[in-house]
Automatic annotation (TrEMBL):
Class of this enzyme: hydrolase
UniProt name for this protein: Fructose-1,6-bisphosphatase class 1
Annotated positions binding Mg(2+) 1: E91, D113, L115
Signal peptide: none
Naturally occurring in which organism (per UniProt): Desulfonatronum thiosulfatophilum
Domain Fructose-1-6-bisphosphatase class I N-terminal span(s) in chain numbering: 5-195
Biological process according to GO: fructose 1,6-bisphosphate metabolic process; fructose 6-phosphate metabolic process; fructose metabolic process; gluconeogenesis; sucrose biosynthetic process
Location within or outside the cell: Cytoplasm
């Protein structure tokens, strides 16, 4: 009988991790429960009145979808119940979400993208939840401020994502490797299915929205061109794969090897750094990919070293197999 490890068991016995305190386990347990609740709705999205748009526009200037809002409400409510947070931040909320007075609190801060890949919901394409966990900087007596939240990604104490795909998986790290758990719907438990994930040093897949070619600078075009026609003498061929859900593109590249790029572009003057958010998308995935032996940059600089200035700031993202990310860095440093 194969060894079956339920996630709570691993969390409880993760002695080597400084995060194995009961308080952290409590927080991750609420994230797990939230993932199960969201997964239920995602799985029957076509049957209940939960597809389509709410008619609202979020702080990102994006049309909010009903499942975005549902996932956000589930996460805010459940995570506040964990009793170990002093603040939350969501892609869907303009400002910090403080823990209500009547909820017990603690020193952790969680930042999340409640539903990544929203544009794909109605087409039944994989989507996900991404989360990033910090400890507050100020001491317990002072009120929590944005300064507690705007920390470099290197200070994350944990990061992870849940992908609602052909199966539902939770992938997370507390700085001791990356572990993947698959939801067994028959028992309603996340079971360890991918212990200690490592990303191949070089991949055979590149993921980028080539529809924006005319909005990229020359260095970016040179970098993307490389993956169409790598070192001429080698017989290496890269495949282009782009789902349009960051969490799904990232997860495939993490397991198979490959590189994902969302470069800076001039398509929207309001965000010349591309579309992806540093705090709730780039930072958590950068922690995961580094723990799996990969790399994550903004084209040149390590994502985890970037000092955030705003909660929803955007950042160009180049993430995946180390040698592929270094290849892009060469082109970005060389310029046009
Ligand atoms: P979200 O649904 O959380 O707003 O994120 C969508 C992001 C990301 O999932 C994906 O990689 C990217 O949008 C796709 O953007 P384009 O359609 O511009 O390629
Ligand atoms: Mn969005
Ligand atoms: Mn997203
Ligand atoms: Mn989102």
């Amino acid at each position: 009988m194969p060894q079956i490890t339920v996630i709570e068991h691993l969390l409880y016995h993760q002695k080597e991790s400084p995060m194995a305190t009961g308080r952290f386990t409590r927080l991750l347990s609420e994230m797990i429960l939230s993932g199960k609740i969201i997964n239920q709705e995602v799985n029957k999205a076509g049957l209940v009145e939960i597809l389509g748009l709410t008619g609202e526009t979020n702080i990102q200037g994006e049309k909010v979808r009903k499942l975005d809002e549902f996932a956000n409400q589930v996460l805010v409510h459940r995570l506040q119940q964990a009793g170990v947070l002093c603040a939350l931040a969501s892609e869907e909320n303009a400002d910090l979400i403080l823990v209500p007075e009547d909820c017990p609190r603690g020193d952790y801060i969680i930042i999340f993208d409640p539903l990544d890949g929203s544009s794909n919901i109605d087409a039944n394409v994989s989507i996900g939840t991404i989360f990033s966990i910090f400890r507050r900087i100020s001491t317990g007596e002072e009120p929590v401020t944005l300064n507690d939240v705007l920390q470099k990604g290197a200070r994350q104490v944990a990061a992870g994502y849940i992908i609602y795909g052909s199966s539902t998986m939770l992938v997370y790290t507390t700085g001791n490797g990356v572990h993947g758990f698959t939801l067994d719907p028959s028992v309603g438990e996340f079971l360890l299915s991918h212990p200690d994930i490592k990303i191949p040093e070089r991949g055979k897949i590149y993921s980028v929205n080539e529809g924006y070619w005319h909005y990229w600078d020359q260095a970016t075009r040179n970098a993307v061109d490389y993956f169409k026609n790598p070192d001429n003498d080698s017989k290496r061929v890269y495949r282009s794969r782009y789902i349009g859900s960051l969490v799904a593109d990232f997860h495939r590249n993490l397991l198979y090897g490959g590189i994902f790029l969302y470069p800076a572009d001039t398509k929207d003057p309001a965000c010349s750094h591309g579309k992806l958010r540093l705090m709730c998308e780039a930072n958590p995935l950068a922690m995961i990919v580094e723990q799996a032996g990969g790399m994550a940059t903004d084209g040149i600089n390590r994502i985890l070293d970037l000092q955030p200035k705003e909660l929803h700031e955007r950042v160009p993202l180049v993430i995946g197999s180390k040698l592929d990310v270094l290849q892009v860095e060469k082109f970005m440093r060389a310029g046009a």
